[in-house]
Design a protein that fits this description.
The chain is α+β, with helices and mostly antiparallel strands and about 140 residues long. The protein contains four helices and four strands; from the N terminus they run βαββαβαα.
Length: about 140
């Protein structure tokens, strides 16, 4: 894609299983490190990271060939295993294998609101002379 231009931004929210309030800064930083390590294999770049006690917010950019759902599954699986090993105290709150909820929220982000894009697309070809630049 040497001659292509793209900017694909996403907002991902991952929730702790049973919405347990187990995240602190130390654990969030470790989850972020794991995210950065795995994302390199999927042409994904972290832009912003933050957490609450029971979920994380992630803003990232992706390449058009990034397999985002595969990446999310790989991240959730690896981070769940590593966090449970590195923070064994968590097993009191999450006694089964899963650390993350099965579900997640993934939103695309863009510069223009959808209404503006719809109007732009719908008006293509209308009154070309009125919209044409004068030379």
């Amino acid at each position: 894609m040497k001659h292509s231009v793209f900017k694909l931004n996403f907002h991902l929210i991952l929730v702790i299983k049973y919405r347990r309030k187990v995240l602190d800064d130390t654990m969030s930083n470790r989850l972020k490190d794991i995210y950065i390590n795995i994302s390199k294999n999927y042409n994904i770049s972290l832009q912003s990271w933050n957490h609450d006690r029971d979920h994380v917010h992630i803003l990232f950019t992706a390449h058009p060939n990034s397999e985002i759902s595969k990446f999310i599954n790989a991240y959730k699986s690896a981070s769940s295993r590593l966090i449970k090993n590195e923070f064994p105290n968590i097993k009191k709150f999450l006694w089964k294998e899963a650390f993350w909820s099965k579900s997640f929220l993934l939103l695309t982000t863009g510069g223009a609101p959808i209404e503006v894009l719809n109007e732009y697309i719908e008006t293509q070809g209308e009154d070309r002379e009125k919209n044409a630049y004068s030379i």
